[in-house]
């Protein structure tokens, strides 16, 4: 069931408070536009934009070309500082400007990201270069995802904008029917080739609005051997139908029809060889090999492992955008959630670039095989709703 009254409040158009410009494009209302510190990054929703479903593509991670000593990313004698956020995952870097990396440095960045899963770079200049520069940076690593319904700056559909409006009463509306709005997920897992990793920056915010990350590879390692063995070979149905319905309910757009795909519950990272728990409360609907009650019981157990184990997690404080922090995070071995703890009436404006990766696999032998079929999609969909 779609939780329409409060879901996705910061990515979809809202017909109650937003505007339509002279070209029929849906935009943020004028009062909020003139207050924005980064107007070039404000979201718009063009109903004329239509895209087909994603097709299969082979993906070779740039990390496979990287020098494991990182001589280009972290040059010898350079004035940079590297700090582990937690022992197991997450690294914070000062003194490196991502926009100035050469291709070899970008390859090494991809390798470090595969190893540490969350990277945080301080004092970056992406915002000053504008949305087009951010898009071109992301394209180096692979094809970029165009979100089916979220806002994007005009002319740059590859940027996904999150925009929590600074209207008084926004948080009261969000919490009217629930005590928390945390929503743990990995990005766009409903796609045939989901996001390999995400580039994310909070441009403007009040205090709070942190992002919390959970290490789902470590979560897998914590399970007993018997439980690990039981999970091997299971697959989960992921769908974007609820997200699409939420956008339509709020008066938004549909650039691409809702899609569903089946992915392994235990996902293998082709760069590191790590296994991780690949479940998603936002888009995952059912373990296709199990009956409904069995699936719900097991998925809820795995959600609890990821969401409640604080010793699997790290938290990024965006400092209101003042430090120009840019985060890169994997989606195969990491889940994340935004927090909704800013003061009422304060804006939270951010952009996201999602680099599409390989079709998720459980075994390395299936990497980049178009004929790889993890399950019967129509039969899986029939398990959650009737098919006409």
TrEMBL record:
Q: Which residues form a coiled coil?
A: none
What InterPro entries does the entry give? AtsK-like, TauD-like_sf, TauD/TfdA-like
- Pfam families membership: TauD
One cellular-component annotation, GO = cytoplasm
For biological process, the GO terms are: sulfur compound catabolic process
Q: Provide the TauD/TfdA-like domain boundaries.
A: 82-353
For this protein, what is any one GO molecular function term?
metal ion binding
- UniProt keywords, alphabetically: Dioxygenase, Iron, Metal-binding, Oxidoreductase
**Which regions span the lipid bilayer?**
none
Q: Which cofactor does it need?
A: Fe(2+)
Task: Kindly give the PANTHER family that the UniProt entry links to this protein.
Answer: ALPHA-KETOGLUTARATE-DEPENDENT SULFONATE DIOXYGENASE
Annotated family: Belongs to the TfdA dioxygenase family.
Q: What is this protein called?
A: Alpha-ketoglutarate-dependent sulfonate dioxygenase
């Amino acid at each position: 069931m779609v939780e329409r009254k409060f879901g996705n409040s910061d990515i979809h158009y809202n017909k109650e408070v937003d505007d339509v410009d002279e070209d029929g494009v849906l935009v943020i209302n004028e009062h909020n536009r003139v207050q924005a510190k980064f107007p070039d990054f404000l979201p718009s929703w063009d109903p004329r934009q239509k895209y087909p479903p994603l097709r299969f593509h082979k993906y070779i991670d740039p990390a496979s070309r990287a020098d494991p000593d990182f001589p280009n990313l972290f040059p010898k004698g350079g004035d940079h500082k590297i700090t582990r956020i937690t022992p197991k995952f997450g690294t914070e870097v000062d003194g490196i400007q991502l926009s100035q990396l050469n291709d070899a440095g970008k390859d090494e960045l991809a390798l470090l990201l595969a190893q540490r899963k969350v990277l945080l770079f301080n004092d970056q200049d992406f915002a000053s270069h504008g949305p087009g520069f951010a898009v071109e940076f992301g394209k180096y690593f692979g094809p970029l995802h165009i979100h089916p319904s979220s806002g994007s700056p005009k002319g740059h559909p590859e940027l996904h904008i999150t925009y929590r409006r600074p209207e008084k009463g926004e948080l009261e509306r969000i919490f009217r029917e629930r005590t928390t709005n945390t929503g743990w997920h990995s990005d766009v897992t409903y796609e045939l080739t989901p996001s390999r990793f995400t580039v994310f920056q909070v441009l403007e915010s009040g205090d709070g609005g942190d992002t919390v990350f959970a290490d789902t590879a470590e979560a897998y390692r914590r399970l007993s051997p018997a439980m690990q063995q039981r999970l091997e070979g299971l697959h989960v149905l992921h769908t974007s139908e609820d997200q699409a319905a939420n956008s339509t309910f709020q008066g938004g757009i549909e650039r691409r029809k809702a899609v569903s795909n089946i992915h392994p519950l235990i996902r293998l990272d082709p760069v590191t060889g790590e296994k991780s728990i690949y479940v998603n409360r936002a888009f995952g609907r059912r373990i296709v090999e199990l009956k409904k009650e069995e699936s719900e019981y097991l998925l809820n157990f795995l959600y609890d492992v990821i969401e409640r184990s604080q010793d699997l997690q790290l938290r990024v404080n965006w400092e209101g955008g003042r430090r120009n922090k840019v985060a890169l995070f994997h989606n195969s071995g990491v889940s994340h959630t935004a927090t909704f703890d800013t003061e009422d009436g304060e804006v939270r404006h951010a952009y996201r670039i999602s680099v599409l990766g390989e079709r998720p696999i459980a075994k390395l032998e299936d990497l980049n095989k178009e004929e790889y079929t993890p399950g019967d999609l129509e039969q899986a969909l029939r398990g959650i709703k009737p098919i006409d």
